[in-house]
Amino acid sequence: MKADFWHERWEKGEIGFHQQDFNRHMLAFTGRLGLPPGAHILVPLCGKSLDMLWLARQGYRITGIEISERAARDFFVENRLAYEFERSPGVISYRGEQVSILCMDFFTVESTQLTHVDAVYDRASLIALPPEMRPAYAGYLAGLLDPGTGSLLVTLEYPQEEMRGPPFSVTFDEVQQLFGSQFAIEHLYSEDCLAREPRFRKKGLTRLEEHVFLLQKTRG
Predict the structure, then answer these.
(1) pTM for the full model?
(2) Cystine design at 133: which of 129, 141, 155, 198 (Cβ 3.0–4.6 Å)?
(3) Burial of 121 by CB count in 10 Å (0-12 exposed, 13-18 middle, 19+ buried)?
(4) 102 pairs with which residues across the strands?
(5) SS3 94
(6) Is the dihedral of CA 99, 15, 204, 166 positive or negative?
(7) pLDDT value, residue 21
(8) How many Å apart are CA 7 and CA 28, to the nearest integer?
(9) Cβ neighbours of residue 9 under 8 Å, at least 6 residues apart?
(10) Model confidence at 3, in pLDDT bands (50, 70, 90)?
(11) 3 state DSSP class of 75
(12) Digit-coded pLDDT (tens) for 149-185
């Protein structure tokens, strides 16, 4: 999916993917990452997610990667957070006390632009990408992480023919295929969530499940 797609969605306010509260699975399972205070969490394709705010309040340092400058600015303004702004070739940086957002194409991020990453939180990255982009995403993400780095991954699964993404359906088997060669994968939780998602029922979905995975980088 091209950057213009996401820029247009943000400018038009077509951001139904943005959650107005903290993600319930993040609240329940972040502890499984075993992170000490001050640990650095990477949030790819972060938007203006309130989850970053909650993670920062737990004492973690957060770096989000987001293509839309509008989304990054809104995160700081709407949450009344002070930030510093910097523009350099290929990236625009919004840096707060505990949260920084780098406005750039995720596939151009270099490890030198990130301090050591202790964990990844992916609630909306993988499911935002069409099938042809997911292998590249999984491989690129793995390349930014050292062995032992944990990731909390949340996915959606539904009959893809019933709704156009994003968000896209990502099956349990696909998670294994995408990450199994470089990560140990633990399936933490599954939930039938269609009943509490009226916007998806209106789109015609007959089934909607959320899955939560804990990934552990095993290979360099």
Answers:
(1) 0.92
(2) 129
(3) buried
(4) 65, 93
(5) strand
(6) negative
(7) 87
(8) 32
(9) 15
(10) low
(11) helix
(12) 999 999 999 999 999 888 999 999 999 999 999 999 9
Domains of the chain listed by start with CATH number: 3-217 (3.40.50.150)
| Sheet containing strand 40-44, strands side by side | 84-88, 91-95, 99-103, 61-66, 40-44, 119-122, 150-157, 209-217, 183-192
Q: What one-letter code names the amino acid at 182?
A: Q
Question: How far from 134 is each of 26, 126, 168, 179, 197, CA to CA, in Å?
Answer: 22, 7, 11, 10, 25
Residue 8 confidence class, pLDDT cut points 50, 70, 90: low
The two three-digit tokens of residue 115, written as one number: 């301090």
C-alpha 80: how far from chain center: 22
Residue 163 DSSP code:
S
Question: Do the Cβ atoms of 60 and 37 come closer than 8 Å?
Answer: yes
Residue 18 has a pLDDT of 46
Strand locations in the chain (E):
40-44, 61-66, 84-88, 91-95, 99-103, 119-122, 150-157, 183-192, 209-217
Give the model's pLDDT for residue 174: 97
